[in-house]
Amino acid sequence: MTRAFPAQTADAVIIEQSWREPERFSAIFDRYYTEIHGYATRRLGTGLADDVAAETFLIVFDKRTGYDISRDDARPWLYGIASNVIARHRRAEVRRYRAPAKAGTEDPAEDHANRVAGEVDAGTRKPRLARALAEIADGDRDVLLLVAWAELTSEEAGRALGIPAGTAWSQLHQARKKIQAFTGKDGR
């Protein structure tokens, strides 16, 4: 029988226990699936989000024995793997940003939940912002979106992507400058 973990139990404890008792990993899945799925939805749209989230957790489960248990919080690790899965779908992501940029309007077929998410996401469907996201370098975009949407620090984003914290900070700075250049200082 699988026992539930208190919400304050560190991710590292759960992951380490899952090395011997794989069913314990379900607590990590339950804790973060919705968050990772939401991030994938923002990056790629609803069509690919289910696949990306599922693939992310399959990879995480397979790699769990390599997790650095000195890090209590698994979020940067999970987002790093999700970012790698999303990178395999890079063309779909760029198309997602270029379509509204070309049209200059929101997608009329978009369902209500996606419209609300888009509004909450600081207007990601706005044409100039969408164009900017499509045009910035992949690595810069990854860091920017991990910081903006996953609410990771630039250091955590660097850890997630396997790059030094200084590089992540630099990429975040570059991405912000490019976004400002495309959208103007007010982001509109």
Write structural notes for this entry.
- The protein is an all-alpha fold and 188 residues long.
- It is 69% helix and 0% strand.
- It is built from ten helices and no strands.
- Helix 8 crosses helix 10.
Low-confidence stretches: 105-125
Task: Determine the strand fraction and express it as a percent band.
Answer: under 5%
What is the C-alpha radius of gyration, as a whole number of Å?
17 Å
Q: Please report the total strand number as a whole number.
A: 0
Per DSSP, the total helix count is: 10
> Helical residue percent?
55-70%
Please tell me what the overall shape is: globular
**Biggest sheet: strands, sense, closure?**
none
Query: H/E series, N to C?
Result: HHHHHHHHHH
Distance between the termini: 53 Å
Overall pLDDT score: 83
What structural class do you assign from the helix and strand content?
A: mainly alpha
Overall domain count = 1
Give short descriptive properties of this protein.
mainly alpha, 10 helices, single chain, globular, 69% helix
Short overview:
This protein is an all-alpha fold. The protein is built from ten helices and no strands. The chain has one domain (11-183).
